[in-house]
């Protein structure tokens, strides 16, 4: 674990997360290289901005559910490799029903260098604080389709409103949105804007953090 990074669940009280790339529930169909534990990591700066967003959401009756934060470069490399492999159809209907996997980079859904690897990007959604139910957004995480774009047609008015609410919360907390993915946000002022890290998200990282007591100031 690089200095300046934290496990987000340890510094954001009550945060919910589901690290999709550490599980079988992602577009590759299996856990991805570099994701060795179901935890989400980010820079101290990312955590501080997320705390602001979390408080704003709470004031409106919502919570944040995180899907991905820091992403090792080896995972990005695996995504690129996977996009070049023959189609097996296992995840196509859920994650990329209207494109070929070979088009993912061209269309902006997969990058050879990801903002996530700089440690200050986050994939997330809202849930209702009273029921715990996810807020309808008109498409799931990592649905690689035009319906996932901001301003997409084909979703309900309520879903459009919910996307705008998430965007308003995040942008007012110091984040930029990404046109192709309603769930993806990156810090406007990143601490490592030109560095792409590759340390794994692992139990060794957890021991390092506990030993060094890295917290958000």
From TrEMBL:
<keyword id="KW-0645">Protease</keyword>
<dbReference type="InterPro" id="IPR000755">
    <property type="entry name" value="A_A_dipeptidase"/>
</dbReference>
<feature type="binding site">
    <location>
        <position position="116"/>
    </location>
    <ligand>
        <name>Zn(2+)</name>
    </ligand>
</feature>
<keyword id="KW-0224">Dipeptidase</keyword>
<dbReference type="GO" id="GO:0071555">
    <property type="term" value="P:cell wall organization"/>
</dbReference>
<keyword id="KW-0378">Hydrolase</keyword>
<keyword id="KW-0482">Metalloprotease</keyword>
<protein>
    <recommendedName>
        <fullName>D-alanyl-D-alanine dipeptidase</fullName>
        <ecNumber>3.4.13.22</ecNumber>
    </recommendedName>
</protein>
<feature type="binding site">
    <location>
        <position position="184"/>
    </location>
    <ligand>
        <name>Zn(2+)</name>
    </ligand>
</feature>
<feature type="active site" description="Proton donor/acceptor">
    <location>
        <position position="181"/>
    </location>
</feature>
<dbReference type="GO" id="GO:0006508">
    <property type="term" value="P:proteolysis"/>
</dbReference>
<comment type="function">
    <text>Catalyzes hydrolysis of the D-alanyl-D-alanine dipeptide.</text>
</comment>
<feature type="binding site">
    <location>
        <position position="123"/>
    </location>
    <ligand>
        <name>Zn(2+)</name>
    </ligand>
</feature>
<keyword id="KW-0961">Cell wall biogenesis/degradation</keyword>
<dbReference type="GO" id="GO:0008270">
    <property type="term" value="F:zinc ion binding"/>
</dbReference>
<keyword id="KW-0862">Zinc</keyword>
<dbReference type="GO" id="GO:0008237">
    <property type="term" value="F:metallopeptidase activity"/>
</dbReference>
<feature type="site" description="Transition state stabilizer">
    <location>
        <position position="71"/>
    </location>
</feature>
<keyword id="KW-0479">Metal-binding</keyword>
<dbReference type="Pfam" id="PF01427">
    <property type="entry name" value="Peptidase_M15"/>
</dbReference>
<dbReference type="GO" id="GO:0160237">
    <property type="term" value="F:D-Ala-D-Ala dipeptidase activity"/>
</dbReference>
<dbReference type="InterPro" id="IPR009045">
    <property type="entry name" value="Zn_M74/Hedgehog-like"/>
</dbReference>
<comment type="similarity">
    <text>Belongs to the peptidase M15D family.</text>
</comment>
<dbReference type="InterPro" id="IPR058213">
    <property type="entry name" value="VanX_actinomycetes/firmicutes"/>
</dbReference>
